[in-house]
Amino acid sequence: MAVSEQRTSLTPTGRVILGMLALGERSGYDIKQKVDKSTRFFWAASYGQIYPELRTLEQQGLVRGRPEPSGERARTLYELTEAGETALREWLSSEGEPLYELRDEGMLKLFFSDAVPEQRIEVIRAMRERQERKLAQLEAIHGNAKDMPTGPLLTLELGLDLTRRFIDWCDAAELRLGKE
Amino acid sequence: MAVSEQRTSLTPTGRVILGMLALGERSGYDIKQKVDKSTRFFWAASYGQIYPELRTLEQQGLVRGRPEPSGERARTLYELTEAGETALREWLSSEGEPLYELRDEGMLKLFFSDAVPEQRIEVIRAMRERQERKLAQLEAIHGNAKDMPTGPLLTLELGLDLTRRFIDWCDAAELRLGKE
DNA sequence: AGGTGCATGTAACAGGTTACATGATTAA
DNA sequence: TTAATCATGTAACCTGTTACATGCACCT
């Protein structure tokens, strides 16, 4: 049965899955766990997306799954096919304008804060607090990051850098606004 | 005809619209223009969202629209009602965990770059270029920002700060990786 | 016996984009 | 006259989340 010739237009979640399989994760569950402690800071994924997408990728011949139960508990382990590796590399080398989407309600509140100026500092403090929490999470990941590949390590370091800068800005802004 | 009693659960786009009306924008078109040169960096909106949402908000009694054609060209100008102002202030003062969603394909490429290590620097350079473009846009807005209210000004300055930091990080990373 | 983690999956919903359609006005 | 800008709107689509359901395995 030949793999039907279809466009290999990798969906967003498809990219994450191929990438994670290349890093060695195996089951849908594994992928979700890994996403939650790595890419989730700039690219989240839910089970509702991952499991159906694994099927689609298998139909496209980009991954290969085989049942590998642990005891009585059903489990399917996936791996990249050659076509899958190629698709991953093609995506990583592609030139087109990459997707970038941000929706940040905290920033929006700050932007519109002139409607309730007395709340402005509160808005900034809340933003700072969230960045502080994020920083703690990133630092925790960085703590046990001995054998981390370069790619994950770089994104982690960038995240740490920008988060710290964000916190510094909040502190400076609070000072400035406090003086007026 | 009494405004029916319904939950005033402001949708995401509804918030932007109320905020923009508070800042003085009037038509759906105006709102879209303003979004495109301000909040779009952390909160975008499309016509397909704005026009239907204006209707919904009117049904909820949060905005009031009246036709005000310019010549033969149809146009509807909106303004906040009292209920709308209240809803806006309530949202701005609300405590719940605010929505935050980021999808950054560039970061994802960097994260998975170990699958094609020889492309890594290219990925970083492309990221840097995009930040550079964003910086230019933000600086252009900052240039003619004489009478900008504090809220918009603060978000703009924060955006400038983080974008510059991002560019610095890219430069440093390129140097580091170049040496190996 | 009960809670937590492993493991998979689906249906309903939410929120948003894109492409398209229409037409007036203004500046080149 | 033509292109750009003003102005409104809809239908089809895409992508994703949430809530729910199931059941095994392990630890206490």
Describe what this molecule looks like in 3D.
2 copies of one chain form a homodimer. Mean pLDDT of chain A is 93; it is low at 1-7. The first copy, chain A, has helices at 12-22, 28-36, 47-59, 82-93, 105-111, 120-143, 150-179, and strands at 63-67, 76-80, 100-104. With 180 residues, chain A is mainly alpha-helical. Chain A contains 7 helices and 3 strands. In chain A, helix 2 packs across helix 3 (47-59). In chain A, 59% of the residues lie in helices and 8% in strands. In chain A, strand 1 and strand 2 form a beta hairpin. The first copy, chain A, has a two-stranded antiparallel sheet with strand order 1-2. Chains A and B meet through helix 1, helix 4, strand 3, helix 5 and helix 6 of A and helix 1, helix 4, strand 3, helix 5 and helix 6 of B. The structure holds a DNA duplex (28 and 28 nucleotides).
Write the layout of secondary structure elements.
2 copies of one chain form a homodimer.
Chain A: H1 12-22, H2 28-36, H3 47-59, E1 63-67, E2 76-80, H4 82-93, E3 100-104, H5 105-111, H6 120-143, H7 150-179
Antiparallel strand pairs in A: 1-2
Chain A binds a DNA duplex (28 and 28 nucleotides) through helix 3.
Structural class of chain A: mainly alpha
Strand neighbour order, sheet with most strands of chain A? 1-2
The proportion of residues in beta strands of chain A is 5-15%
Specify Rg of chain A, calculated over alpha carbons: 21 Å
Describe the main β-sheet of chain A briefly.
2 strands, antiparallel
